[in-house]
Amino acid sequence: MLSAFTSLTQTFARNRLESSQNNLQSAIQKLSSGLRINRASDDAARLKISQELSQQSKTLTAATKNAMSAISMAQTADGSLSEISNLLVRIKQLAVSGRDNALNQTQVKAISDEMEQLRREVNSIANRTTYNDRRLLTDELGSWVTVLNDEKLDGNWSDQYVDSDSVRVIINAEGDDLVRLNSTSGLTSVKGYNGATSDGAATNGSWTNGTAQEIGFNASWEDAKTVLRDLEFQRQKGGGEISVQVIPAAMYSYTDDSGRISYYEVVTDALTWTNARAAALSRSFSGLDGYLANITSAGEYNFIKDKVAATAWIGASDVGTEGTWKWMDGPEAGTTFWQGTSTGSAVNGQYSAWATGQPDASGDGANLWADQA
Predict the structure, then answer these.
(1) What is the CA radius of gyration of the chain?
(2) Which residues of 88-102 are buried (b: 16+ CB within 10 A; e: fewer)?
(3) From first to last of its 373 residues, what are the pLDDT tens digits of the chain?
(4) How much is the pTM?
(5) d(CA 336, CA 320)
(6) Dist. CA 208–CA 201, nearest whole Å
(7) Sign of the torsion angle spanned by Cα atoms 294, 248, 204, 209
(8) Nearest 10 degrees: CA dihedral of 302, 175, 138, 128?
């Protein structure tokens, strides 16, 4: 026969042992963690308060890190903006210096070249300023951004044109960057831009579809302003530079590889070289003195030949010494670039573009041919 016995003494001893073990574990946990409250059983009310304080502390720590990152980013941008500010001050000084009527054309060109280099450096700094691979001073690649606002439009050209003036607008993006218009109302094409073969043709679809790197159009200044307010620019991988030239409708502008901008006017009057030179020297635009074109690169030649229909006088002459051809006016005045007649040779490898049989010994001037290869 089986019997069951209960020993109260043993049961009490076992319970006391378990309680002692639990207290020991709790004491060891407090010692190892350094916390008085580790679980709800220690103190439920104070544990809740402790957890809330811990959450707030961690949140503030993360916020502090964010603030430090923001400060570092702002300091990076501030350093670049400070350098850009210094460059802009220098550009302003040069602009004022360039208005000195006592300067000759060579000195004015030197000032203009320095201003162009400083402008490029400003854009370069803006493009290089990044924090954690994020651009701080320019738009991100691939996004379309508006280029001109009313303040820029009024500040740049309002003192030159009234709404009824006929103007020519030339827009160029650098490298593979793109430009587009959102409206073409009142615009007509310019020969040599966007595949246009003549002035006044119908508007071009590439103006609005976001595939153009350059746009040229004629319009009244009133219509041009309306369109330019919505001009957009998309940076692909270029330097983020875009030029917008607004000139009288009878003129053209060309930007060479160094960023130097030249302005041209095609005159169809039948003139001798001497009279053509005198007429060119009497012209002026935007503070610049005119002269017969000095064509010093293939790019400039290709640009000009699309704008003229036949032979055209250039600014070269051998009036001083027969067969020694020099540019007579402009920044290159006095520079010898060709020696001899049509069978002669370039001096120091300088560029030349002559009409067939030119230069010859029949006069003091020479011309280029628009269809020359």
Answers:
(1) 38
(2) eeebeebeeebeeee
(3) 555 556 667 777 777 777 777 777 766 766 666 565 666 656 667 667 777 877 888 888 888 888 888 888 888 888 888 998 999 999 999 888 888 888 887 888 888 888 888 887 887 787 778 888 777 776 665 677 777 777 777 777 877 888 899 999 988 887 788 888 888 888 888 877 777 777 776 656 778 888 888 888 999 999 998 888 888 888 776 666 788 889 888 888 887 777 778 888 888 787 888 888 899 999 888 778 899 988 888 888 888 877 776 677 888 888 888 888 899 998 888 899 999 888 889 998 898 877 777 787 665 555 554 333 2
(4) 0.57
(5) 11
(6) 16
(7) positive
(8) -110
